[in-house]
Protein 1
Amino acid sequence: MTTLEIRDVSVIYKKLAAVSHISLHVSKGEIIGFIGADGAGKSSLIHAIAGVIQFEGEILYSGHSYHSPQEAEAIKPIMGLMPQGIGLVLYDTLSVMEHLEFFADLRGLTKDEKFYAYRKKLLHMSGLSDFTDRLAGNLSGGMMQKLSLICTLLHRPKLLILDEPTTGVDPLSRLELWEILDNIRKEEGTIIIVSTAYMQEAAKMDRIFLFDEGNIIAQGTSRALLNSIASYTYIATQDTTKNAITFDKRTYSLENLNAEHTQPTLEGLFFINALKNNKTLAPVTIEQRQTEKNIPEIVMQAKGISKYFGSFVANDHINMTLKRGEILGLLGANGAGKTTFIKMLLGLYKIDDGELKLLGKSIKSAQDRMTLKGKIGYVSQHFALYNDMTVKENLIYFANMHKIPLQTAMQRINTYAKELGFDKHMNDLPKELPLGVNQRFSIAAALLHEPVVLFLDEPTSGVDTLARAQFWQILHKLKEKWGISILITTHYMSEAEYCDKVVLLKRGKKIADDTVENLYKNNPNAKTFEDIFLAYFKAES
Amino acid sequence: MKINIIKAYMLKEFKELFRSRLIVMVYLMPSMILLLFGYGIKLDVSHARILILDYDQSKYSLQLASKFEHTKYFNAKSLHVSEQEALRMIKQAKEDAILIIPASFEKNLLQGKKSEVGVFVDTSFPTRGATIEAYIQGTIISAVQEIAKSLGIVQTGLIQIDNRNLFNQAMRDENAIVPGLIGLVLLIAPAILAALLIVKEKERGTIFNFYASPLSRGEFLFAKLFPAFLLHSVNIFILLLLTLYVFDVPFRGSFFLYWFASELYILISISIGMLISIITSRQIVAVVLTLIITIIPGFLYSGMLMPISSMDGASKIEAHIFPVMYYNHIIYDTFLIGQGLASQKILLYLGILCLYIFILFAIGVKLLKKEMK
């Protein structure tokens, strides 16, 4: 019986435990999933199992025990690893077929009839049969991930380890990736370990392990896990004690509440875990802004905006409208054109075609933007913070950039720090802080000059569930108190739920644009936003 | 050894090199460096601008002045200006030297009295200044001897120097510089390529293919470095041809020795690149580090600008640490001298080059980890 057993494994990274004392057991043909935020320890454990990092403890694969990468060499021939990152293991200048040749040679496969048949089957399964001559550098993100996967599958590994193979990949490709995995484990009896940042994918796994701060906080089938917290989950209610978390139409509480129970989500597991550790979401309060702003009804209007990079169309005639006090979610996979669009709005990229109106003003030149700079707030994908200045120094610097008098600036900084809950970290360096804290203080930096519109580029990427929940609370409070408009991009389809309106991009084209209610109304069979988007993606291709 | 896997890796390397146009750099850079530096470095002096102030205007003073004309060493000019004016011209970099012949020059000479001539030389560049000074002195001495002979005055000096230059009879800069440049180029270029080949995979993430595969560390290094070795082996011949036919440097030694020593030297360079790529994780860092580590010793301790034998103390020790000194000794022999393997020193130096390869590779295999940092 081929099994994988992990005994008391810890990975120490820069003197900190990335994962500590993990033990688990996997049987033949099982798909297990690691779920958690960036930095929760999923990747570290995956690297330890794959034998590419030093670790403490013992890992046993069908009788062979290893304690270090050196000892793991023996299982490398039957192991397949797909590390995190889109197209990470691909060579841009090699074609799809050349990749398959290279990986076959790398694994020392004999190229007989059986090999060619299997290769053909993999190409067919991944839908890459028609693209065998295309260079990897010219593939879409989804195709890259599928190519990486079939390259990893080529030698029929008995132990398949995939680190976030679906992150940033479009919903349709994700579905296809999972189909391939399901076939493989049925036909080959492969042990598959998959990590993911998408809770929705838990249903595809036989067992899931939830990671939080280097520990496994819950494990089991997704059904069992959901059942385990059913008694703590209520329909959202205001009538709570202090130890409760309300998010996404649900209230989680360890104590009995005077409310009806509802269907829990896997995200609830993280909330319940937090509650069990006596952690709750820090309450968010946003004060009225100091200056009264006159905001036009239509904050941003784009008509047929396009961006070309050579022959590549990054944005293809996009129409979009952002109204006053609206949260507009711009959704799409990696490379769909979300960031390009925001950069054009900000004037970081030249608009190649189309018309743009910001706050009622037609934007033709950089001059037109100058007067608007004070009204727009922007948080970039990787938070443009200075890592060698403390949080406070960063904020003062941003205040100076907007020419805010120091006294006003300090007052606002202190208010935001309290409101957004990072006042404890004012004198810390950003690089020493968790992503969630950096995210909140980046927002504060973008709010210092009290803008009327906020552009947020993937602010929730890699942030843990609790921080994300808190972040969305902040955005909703801002909208409520300030009447601010927010354009936010994300590749988490589930976050569409928290927006007022959603625009879905696919390879530079807009394929959906509607309010959240209408989208649900038009797709009565859809249970989640994932299903709705899948329908749009299928209709498009 | 898993020959097929190594072959697959190498095939992939070649495809990538050609498609990413990196191959252009592999062949353009070495020839460019050779041409740029070969033409650019000038150590000997020709056409030094000399201003002659002849206050005597006699037969012999004119004979002396004429000695500075019609020679490739000087561009002589006789002017009737004051000494102040002449000095001003040297300050404004219009002249390199001034020769002042006093009014009593011929009279003193005929009377057998001591005669003084004034020489002012711009020595802001000491070597150049010293060279000009020596030229002037030599020219004056030979002119005076000629005059003395024609007058029938007995030579006071009994020893006449019969000077013969060896190995670089024409004292051409090219002969002295260009072979040394080969030692510089073949130290830099293969090192950069080798460093890039491994760091590129680290930066991109494709290094995981190696981590997760059954390939051993030695096999991986071999597959990565052998293409660099093959490609740069061609450069050995390109550089030789450029040296012989563009710079007209003579070749007096054994071609086989040149070739063999150069291949050894490329291996050293490649292993330096390999070591750098093992300790760095970004391409840009690897390139800058390689340049610093190879160019400075490649220039200073090549024996090109100053002979190692004239160094002392720390610089002499440093020169012996870097491989360029040993290689250049062999290279200069093959071009200018031609002793070849008959020289004990060359045999010893070949041995040292081999030792370098062995040590660097051993460190590389030891340091390379098949795991993440």
Protein 2
Amino acid sequence: MIILPIAMFMFIKRVLYKEFKFLFIYLILAASTQLVSFITWKMKLNNLPILHLYTVLEFLILLTYYWVLLKGFLNKSAFFILIILFPILEILSILFVENIYQYNNLSRSVEALLLIFFSICWFVKIVAEDDDFRSQYQGFNYINAGFLLYFSGAITLFACSSFVNEMSVNLKMNIWTIHTLLAVQLYILISIGLWKARAK
Amino acid sequence: MESESQVKFYFGIISAMLAFAIIAGGFIIIAIRYQKRLLFKQQELLKLDAQHKQELLLISIQSAETERMQLAKDMHDEIGSIFSTLSLSINRLKDELRLPEEKIADSKKLVQSGIDSIRRISHAIVPFELELLGLQETLDNHFESITSISGIHIIFKNNANLKQLNKMTSLAIYRIFQELLSNCIKYAKATTVEIDVIEKDKCLVINYKDDGQGTTLKPTAKGIGLKNIESRVLLMRGDLNFTSQPNAGFECTITLPLIQNTSL
């Protein structure tokens, strides 16, 4: 499903705003991580260390994306602090809280919480900003709605994933299917957003 | 096998996931609806602003026409009557002093020339015949007088029913031609002007073309004449396009929707 927004991006990249390059990097990262995880899963290897690395990279890319998008709306130094603090949090959690071969509940939940906050900030910004801004950036609404829905829905799963992993395969599969549905809606909304956000 | 606590936990997680997603969805709907309402208000304001500008434009054109009318009327009535009285006075003087006709012939000629000039200028300022003769004949007369003054050959082909146009639109079209031909005389050094008027898709389409020296003027840097034409076209909710190249003449297409500009 992630192929859809990537294909959309490739199709209309010439007419997209510069803010989207970070989104494209995010999509490429997500697609390659999914591919590597699938290969390692097939090889019956534990692929959770990839998730730890992915979480940090995903957060840094999306943070930069929101930094550009929310320019002038939020404190600049807060973004710099987060860029430094989040990787430190991940390292500390690997060292003291979770094993690298276990699901990274803590950093994943913190990431989700922060990205929920940023996507809410976007909606606050479009209401607070002037009219020109509002009509120009309508396509971003879809993308932010996708992130807000995905991270809001998945935050409980991220926080409780250690417990979920101890459940029976059947229940575990059901819960992760809901997560997949949330991811699918994210990719669909990103694709719609990209299409709508074509620069006129 | 799933234990009871596992199933409870399972439903708890799913409920929490759904609840958070629903809350987020609700927030998104509220934010987007609010945004749409703001956009709607913004569009309404823009519409009002455009309407206001249109009204201002209409008022300014109407007041200019009223002033022209007053000026033409004053010239025609007051200065014209002075010349007529002067003519009568000369005749009376001739009778009283028993002067031969040839002695006052020059003076009478001058007075007649003054009367003719006043009539010509006042008619140029306001086309009084527009109401009496209609746009087609007024334009024919105007083109004839331009040809006689400047020597420009004007080919006017009309395939539209100009009688259906309302008074304001007829006057506006007359003014547009006045402006175009005035530009042509002043700057273009053209020898031939072709004017085609047709009706197409419930619109009146006016094509103007001259063989003059053209202009390098960009559409964004129009002169006062072209701006006047544009204002009038805008007021009639029409569309104006012109193309010109140095030494390649000047072409202009004006499209006016008939539905807004007819007297019906």
